Amino acid sequence: MNQKERFKKIIAHFEENVPIAETELKYKDAFSLLVAVILSAQCTDKRVNLITPPLLSQFPDAKSMANSTQEEVFEFIKTCSYPNNKAKHIRGMAKMLVDKYNATVPSDIDELQNLPGVGRKTANVIASVVFDKPAMAVDTHVFRVSKRLGLTQNAKNPLAAEKQLVQYIPEHLIPKAHHWLILHGRYICIARKPKCDECGLQAFCKYYKMQK
């Protein structure tokens, strides 16, 4: 099976079995999603969804967040991983939005990456989820699942994986494919003991064939 066929069959499986695939982070607008994604680094979406409502109730937009102190933000987010760093980033991000972008989250991936705490993965999440751009965010789940399925080959880092994935996924499906791979990695193709017996992708999966 060549790469084109592998992608086609895996996409067909997801389209049939997971017609709705979207972020599990709760958000109201671009700013609230940006805060949530920054918080989600090495932290579960479940935990982030507990933290964001009180935080965003107090600081609902870039202007109010920019006027907060790092200590105030820390108090709301101290139960997530790396709260000191994230408090600094979230406040810095809000301040730059106010100073440079008229308090509005930009849709451009390069501009998003100018913001404190925003790397390529986070920028791609915002671009695809909020602005429906064909941006493939590669987190640990996407990186692991795409490697196991054989969608990527010898990708040394997330950027290399991203480039291989967007080559074969139809542009209009890229935002959804990101969620397909994340959700598959979160619930089926988990890191330590993948649930291969529950997986409908056995016929196309390189990892599964190697285990047999």
Please give the largest β-sheet: none
CATH superfamily of the largest domain: Hypothetical protein, domain 2
The end-to-end distance, rounded to whole angstroms, is 18 Å
Q: Per CATH, which architecture of the largest domain?
A: Orthogonal Bundle
Q: In sequence order, what are the helices and strands, one letter per element? A: HHHHHHHHHHHH
Please write out the topology.
Blueprint: H1 3-17, H2 30-39, H3 45-58, H4 62-66, H5 70-77, H6 83-100, H7 109-112, H8 120-129, H9 140-149, H10 158-168, H11 174-187, H12 206-211
Helix pairs in contact: 2-3, 5-6, 9-11
Pick out its properties.
about 60% helix, about 210 residues, 2 domains, single chain, Endonuclease Iii, domain 2, Endonuclease III, domain 1, mainly alpha, 12 helices
Describe this structure in words.
The chain has 212 residues and is mainly α. It folds into two domains: 96 residues, Orthogonal Bundle (Endonuclease Iii, domain 2), CATH 1.10.1670; 100 residues, Orthogonal Bundle (Endonuclease III, domain 1). The chain is 59% helix and 0% strand. The protein has twelve helices and no strands. Helix 5 packs across helix 6. It is elongated, with a radius of gyration of 18 Å. The mean pLDDT is 95.
